[in-house]
Design goal:
The chain is built from ten helices and six strands. With about 290 residues, the protein is mainly alpha-helical. It folds into two domains: about 5-140, no CATH class; about 165-250 and about 260-285, no CATH class. A three-stranded antiparallel beta sheet has the order 1-5-2, with no helix packed on it. Strands 3-4-6 form a three-stranded antiparallel beta sheet, with helices on one face. Helix 3 crosses helix 5, helix 4 (about 105-115) packs parallel to helix 6 and helix 6 (about 145-150) packs across helix 9. The radius of gyration is 24 Å and the shape is elongated.
């Protein structure tokens, strides 16, 4: 994947290079300015072969096993290095024009690259690249706990997470039409909800609700969904209470950074169904 580093030159790119280099112990160069990739790979093989030889202390070890071990170690480390550099390359497009002078926390940085080295899925790499680009630009928005959560997600769990997050309101809750724990017509079944719970992305309490107070001048409660602001009221009520699916704090951190595209079809569906229950909705903006 090629990235136009000309548009990302200067301080943002310099900080990214410094961050990655300090984590991997050698100078990181983005793909477009990296000419010696093949030579580096060959050098890494030689290095790992030498390390493998140094680790072998069993005198009567089978030579064939030794060779296979050396090749396995070399291939594994080359793949890890390629994964790290791929994520770093992808993160360039997520760098802000103005980056903070605050350095990235040492433990956070080490944890990040230890996780990234074993990520092979393109979809997951893109998520990790967003995290890195944001952290280089403005450190401290994603905790180590959130990194641990993300590192344990497989591709299916990540896709379900994105799908559910796209249906969330401003405070990262997904409003339910009724107290039901499935969103079948939007591709999320009850079984999927259980998967998200087990992954640590949503709370397991199925009876959670969220309260919106009525604002006197408008005589309505206000809900924000993506770029839409909606007023809602119900006759005889001075507050609006909806059932919700609630994300965990670590999941909320990831949502804030990843900025999933909102599913406005779900908003339309929610308004239509809740209108049948006596709720009155009004778009404050269009």
């Amino acid at each position: 994947m090629e990235v136009n580093i000309i548009k990302t030159e200067g301080k943002p790119l310099e900080k990214l290079i410094e961050t990655v280099s300090s984590a991997i112990g050698t100078l990181y160069k983005p793909t477009q300015i990296r000419k010696e990739a093949k030579a580096n790979a060959e050098a890494l093989i030689m290095q790992k072969e030498a390390e493998a030889k140094g680790m072998i202390i069993i005198a009567d070890a089978n030579d064939e096993i030794i060779e296979r071990t050396k090749k396995r170690i070399a291939l594994q480390e080359i793949n890890r290095q390629m994964n790290i550099e791929d994520v770093a390359d992808r993160s360039i497009k997520y760098l802000s024009k103005n980056v903070s002078d605050t350095p990235i926390d040492f433990d956070w940085k080490n944890r990040f690259f230890n996780k990234v080295q074993d990520i092979n899925s393109d979809e997951l790499k893109e998520i990790w690249a967003k995290i890195l680009g944001n952290e280089v630009s403005n450190p401290g928005n994603v905790s180590i706990r959130a990194l641990e959560l993300l590192s344990n997600l497989d591709k299916k769990e990540a896709e379900l997470f994105e799908k559910l997050a796209s249906m969330s309101v401003f405070n990262h809750s997904v409003l339910k039409v009724n107290n039901e724990n499935s969103y079948d017509q939007f591709g999320i079944t009850f079984s999927d909800i259980l998967v998200l719970e087990a992954a640590g992305l949503i709370h397991s309490n199925t009876s959670l609700n969220i309260t919106y107070p009525t604002i006197p001048p408008l005589n309505m409660a206000i809900i924000q969904f993506g770029n839409k602001i909606i007023g809602v009221k119900k006759e005889g009520e001075n507050k609006i209470v909806f059932n919700q699916t609630s994300f965990t704090h670590a999941a909320e951190e990831l949502i804030n950074i990843l900025k999933f595209e909102h599913n406005y079809n779900y908003l339309s569906y929610f308004i239509k169904e809740k209108s049948k229950q006596g709720y009155v909705f009004q778009y404050i903006n269009q």
